[in-house]
Amino acid sequence: xxxxxxxxxxxxxxxxxxxxxxxxxxxxxxxxxxxxxxxxxxxxxxxxxxxxxxxxxxxxxxxxxxxxxxxxxxxxxxxxxxxxxxxxxxxxxxxxxxxxxxxxxxxxxxxxxxxxxxxxxxxxxxxxxxxxxxxxxxxxxxxxxxxxxxxxxxxxxxxxxxxxxxxxxxxxxxxxxxxxxxxxxxxxxxxxxxxxxxxxxxxxxxxxxxxxxxxxxxxxxxxxxxxxxxxxxxxxxxxxxxxxxxxxxxxxxxxxxxxxxxxxxxxxxxxxxxxxxxxxxxxxxxxxxxxxxxxxxxxxxxxxxxxxxxxxxxxxxxxxxxxxxxx
Length: 327
What we know:
By secondary structure, the chain is α/β, with parallel strands linked by helices. 43% of the residues lie in helices and 21% in strands. It contains 11 helices and 11 strands. Strands 3, 4, 5, 6, 7, 8, 9, 10 and 11 form a 9-stranded mixed sheet that branches. The chain is elongated, with a radius of gyration of 24 Å.
């Protein structure tokens, strides 16, 4: 009988899934000590398994610089393929669970911080419908989420201003109105109408330069012939709103990032040309081999989720006050 793994085949020498799991932990944490703590293993055990994996592959997988580990080119290749292997085993587990009549598995969604108020409400009904799905929400600014996309760390992404690089499938999920806000005690808050000239000399509180909200804001203002001259940067939507409440300046934020409680102390400024219009998007790598659960969630977000965003947007347009999407 021909052996399953003929002599010389890498599959017969690469070790075990556990060794690949240890390598991933070392790569993600940057060290033996941190990887051992994450996996609840002893440091000698982690070191030994790493050596066995290197010996089996026949190439060094990492180099030591003090206590910090740097992957070699071979190590980076093994890490990339190890991630694919574990994605495959996750899909296999989900398929086997389905044969048993239960939808059980893992789902990871990367979400830009501008949507951190919106996304839990969108995903709430999905979680209640499929309580055995292990959901992980990874929040980050646009730069961090783009990096996660490039490394294929998540199944799906919810984003405002979409990625520009090739290889990404981008589908609109609804309008993202961007509104100008000020503290209720601000002198501009009592005005019934405002032009850009009325606010041009105000101090604006902006997100960091890589933020999707900031990119969308600056592009749309430029299209109107406007620009922001004086500004300070706060890399947090919640921080920006509190800075506005503290009369540090005015800001432009997603309308659905406000809530009814804050509406008592924050005022949307009636500036001509506002609101600016961006969109919410569901993003994933093109030709991604979706698990059943990931495909189910994508269909949900672009069906029921999109309807929820549209309902909340219509409510805001009719009442000029936010209403988080619900089902």
